[in-house]
Every structure is written in structure tokens, then in C-alpha cells.
Specification:
By secondary structure, the protein is α/β, with parallel strands linked by helices. The protein has a single domain, classed as 3-Layer(aba) Sandwich (Rossmann fold). It is built from nine helices and nine strands. The protein has a seven-stranded mixed sheet, with helices on both faces. The chain has a two-stranded antiparallel ribbon with strand order 4-5. The chain is globular. It starts with a helix and ends with a helix. The model has no long low-confidence stretch (mean pLDDT 86).
């Protein structure tokens, strides 16, 4: 069929699971990635499969950090909670561990029976301190990809970001359009913050039910040099909107008529 190449192309555009996958396919594979909110490093194998040469990990929970360093080299991992300033705070531990956060859960959060089981005190680090830590070990000497997955604290981390912006080519940032963590900035505030820093919002990966997910940001200078990533992101957003409209129409037609 004449339209088979087009169908394959459209399926390809919709197939990406994460901002990083989209970035690697549409632009380039980063040499290094800094993953803040690492948990046990579940993505380590995927990063290797993508061709990323070096992955660095930051995890706040001491017990989870011990599991992390069983999966990655210890020199590539850091046990720290990242915030806008260096301050003593309560870190809230969730029953599933992956949703633990420096922030409290809001009463109307969208994650069902999720609750915190306790907390402990720790002293936070800033993003700049984290970067200096790894740079002193010989990492992050050239441009790299930053991934923030810290359960609502992303805006605070970005607010305390003071240097090294020329080295971070792209950012995957967890964002939300709805309530979740108390005090967490909504998606539009994160977008405005990163536009101010010189990064364009490219592609979003949000769950249709919770309105929570990840957003890809690419440095403006890089996006100008590679406009195809903007074009592909626009095509993807139109396709997703079309899929959403189609599903809504199908659900409407299934409803019994009075």
C-alpha cells in the first residue's frame, strides 16, 4: 500500500516511552546522563542499550542507596536529597519507596491508596553541589543529559540551579497538571522556569488519568540547530490529540442512549 511508509512513520513517532528515548532517536544519544531520583537504578540496562556511555545516579533514601550501589558502580552514585538550598528537612518515605519525597502528599492525590509510612531528617544538597561532586570525580566534563525524577521537588531543584547550564543540553523533568505533592509547582511553572534558563519544552509524556508524567526540554541553541526535533514533537502532539479525540468519541458512542 502506498501509505505504508507514512503509517510506519506515525507509529514510530508515537512509540517513544520517555523523553530520553525521544531525544536519542530524534537528535542524538548523550555521552553522559545524570539521573536524580535514581531509586535502585532500574533504568541502568536501558541506558546501556541506548548507547549512553556513562550514567550517574543520585538517591536520597539510605537503604535504597545501598541497593542502588549493588547495581551500579559506587563512584557513580551519590546518597543525597537535592533541593534549592542546603537545609535540614524531613524526607517522607512511601510504602512503595518509589514515591518517597521531601514533600507531603496532598489529600486529593491521584495515586489511589498511596501513603507515607514514616520520615527521617536529612540535610539537602543543591544541584550545583551535586554537579561539583561528580566533576571532582572526573565525570560531567562535557555536555550531558539531566533527568529529574524527585516526586514534586523538581521546581525547587531548578530554583537553586546557579551554574553549569552551558553543559546541560537537555532535561527530562517530572511534571504534573494536577494535585499530587503539597507545594509542588504545576507543569506551567516548571516550563516558565526552564524557558527563562534557555530551554524549550519539546515533548510531554503525561498519563491521561493522573495528568502526571515527564516533559522534555532542549537547550534553545541546540533546538535551533536541529529544528527537526521541534517538527517531530509537533507531529507527535497532533497524533496524541487525535488518538484522545478518537477514544473519547468511541466512549461516547458506547454509552446507552435514553
Amino acid at each position: 500500500m502506498k501509505n505504508q511508509p507514512l503509517r510506519r512513520y506515525l507509529r514510530h513517532i508515537l512509540a517513544f516511552a520517555t523523553p530520553l528515548d525521544f531525544y536519542c532517536d530524534q537528535l542524538k544519544v548523550p555521552r553522559e546522563i545524570l539521573h536524580i531520583g535514581a531509586h535502585t537504578g532500574e533504568e541502568n540496562q536501558h541506558y546501556k542499550e541506548l548507547g549512553i556511555g556513562s550514567a550517574l545516579w543520585v538517591e536520597a533514601q539510605p537503604d535504597i542507596y545501598l541497593q542502588l550501589i549493588k547495581n551500579v558502580e559506587q563512584k557513580r552514585a551519590l546518597n543525597a536529597a537535592v533541593w534549592s538550598t542546603e537545609i535540614e528537612m524531613n524526607f517522607n518515605v512511601s510504602e512503595n519507596s518509589v514515591s518517597s519525597s521531601l514533600l507531603e502528599l496532598e489529600s486529593d492525590h491521584p495515586w489511589g491508596e498511596l501513603n507515607f509510612s514514616g520520615h527521617y531528617k536529612l540535610t539537602t544538597m543543591t544541584l550545583q553541589s551535586v554537579l561539583v561532586h561528580f566533576q571532582n570525580l572526573g565525570f560531567l566534563q562535557s555536555k550531558f543529559f539531566l533527568l529529574l525524577d524527585v516526586q514534586g521537588a523538581e521546581f525547587e531543584i531548578l530554583s537553586g540551579w546557579r551554574g553549569n547550564r552551558n553543559k546541560i543540553e537537555a532535561i527530562s523533568c517530572e511534571v504534573s497538571r494536577k494535585s499530587g505533592y503539597a507545594g509542588a509547582a504545576k507543569r506551567w511553572r516548571v516550563i516558565l522556569k526552564l524557558i527563562k534558563y534557555g530551554y524549550l519544552p519539546i515533548a510531554s509524556f503525561l498519563d491521561k488519568e493522573t495528568k502526571h508524567g515527564d516533559q522534555l526540554f532542549v537547550k534553545l541553541s541546540q533546538a535551533i540547530k536541529h529544528p527537526q526535533i521541534l517538527f517531530q514533537a509537533i507531529i507527535r502532539s497532533f497524533l496524541l490529540a487525535g488518538v484522545k479525540i478518537q477514544k473519547s468519541l468511541e466512549e461516547f458512542l458506547k454509552k446507552p442512549r435514553v
